[in-house]
Amino acid sequence: MNLSVNAARLQQEMDTLAGFTQVEQTGREGERAVTRVVFTNDDMQARAWLRVLYEEAGLQVREDAVGNTFARWVGSDPGLPAVGTGSHTDAIPHAGMYDGTLGVLGGLEAIRTLQRVGVKPRRSIELVMFTSEEPTRFGIGCLGSRLMAGTLDPARADALLGKDDLTLRQARENAGFQGDLAQVKLPVSYYSAWAELHIEQGPLLERDGVQIGIVTHIAAPASYRFTIDGLGGHAGALLMPDRRDALCAASEIILAIERAALGTGVIDTVATVGTVKVHPGAVNSVPSRVDLELDVRDTEPGRRDEVMAHIRSAIAEIEARRGVKVSETEINADAPATSSEAIVESIQKACKDLGLTNRRMVSRAYHDSLFIARVAPVAMIFVPCRDGVSHRPDEFATVEAMRDGVSVLAETLLDLAR
Ligand code: HGY
Ligand code: MN
Ligand code: MN
């Protein structure tokens, strides 16, 4: 099919969306970091701007009680379950401008490209922008899609305490999203199929010179909070033998986590401690308490659980030797997702039709598709990103790569919506 994606406009829209951010200097000439945390002004302005684009494309727009946004191109047979696509536009602190946003603006451009060639899909095609895919504010990733899939208890979700001490309920209501979170759960077979476009957030496509990645599996993410309670005191007067320094204990725990991930000997196991809070946090006061958050993932959930077992036994030894108390809270421990072979083949067909090289692959990052996979057949389309970099201001994808991804998505959506 002769599809002509308006790549110049897509690039412009990506650049405009990147402008909705807390401004911060990265210190590197011409480099722009993006931070867009859910329900902040930047997020709300971005949402309002996107809504105008959806309406200009003639899409029917609705928002649910947590702010997931649905923009529907009504098909000739509107009663049929729709085909879905989309991603997120929230961005972690000091991030790039492509993670998630390509799936929303690229999804919109795929719909507009199909509209331009005058096709009328039988099934409606619905573009989704998920609320809070990133765990930045409420500590758990994929908040909006978990609620859509019915895998997160609405009362537990509303009680989640944000980093600014507002609960999700308070924050969403302040942002204008009222209503009962239980209504966010999608009706059974709401989508007949789902495809998400995203940058790879890894180096394989670029390294192998392949234009499109077709995701067959999404790795299983888990995250935990550990609180280490020791004994505080005066940095001058409290002598070393009498100390139970919570930060020294935390440091040993962090290195034990790294050792446990490396210890599986399998490249698919990853573990990260990305946040550490030290109390009281004064240069001349021995740390009495440390809160740290662990993100651990593997393509095999069983191996991930083994890593957790090794981490827990290391913690027990550190606790005893250092005389500290460590408590653990599980935030999430999710199963991996397997893509629908039919949708993988539809994407493969589109790549062949468009003359684009492609390969099947695993997604090591998690995505909202991980949870949509609980309620619909899914697959994902990856495009290369420079040096595989993501969650950094220098995240980058070429306009040609974005154009290729959108062309494949457009053909796939049309095929699925027949
Ligand atoms: O962390 C992730 O995998 C996703 O980018 N939020
Ligand atoms: Mn991300
Ligand atoms: Mn993402």
UniProtKB/TrEMBL annotation:
Transmembrane segments: none annotated. It comes from the Bacteria. Zn(2+) 2 binds at D99, E134, H391. One of its GO terms (molecular function) is hydrolase activity, acting on carbon-nitrogen (but not peptide) bonds, in linear amidines. Zn(2+) 1 binds at H88, D99, H198. Its cofactor is Zn(2+); Mn(2+). Binds 2 Zn(2+) ions per subunit. Gene3D superfamilies: 3.30.70.360, Zn peptidases (3.40.630.10). Keywords: Hydrolase, Manganese, Metal-binding, Zinc. Residues 222-318 form the Peptidase M20 dimerisation domain. It holds the Pfam family M20_dimer. Homodimer. Belongs to the peptidase M20 family. NCBIfam families: hydantase. This is N-carbamoyl-L-amino-acid hydrolase.
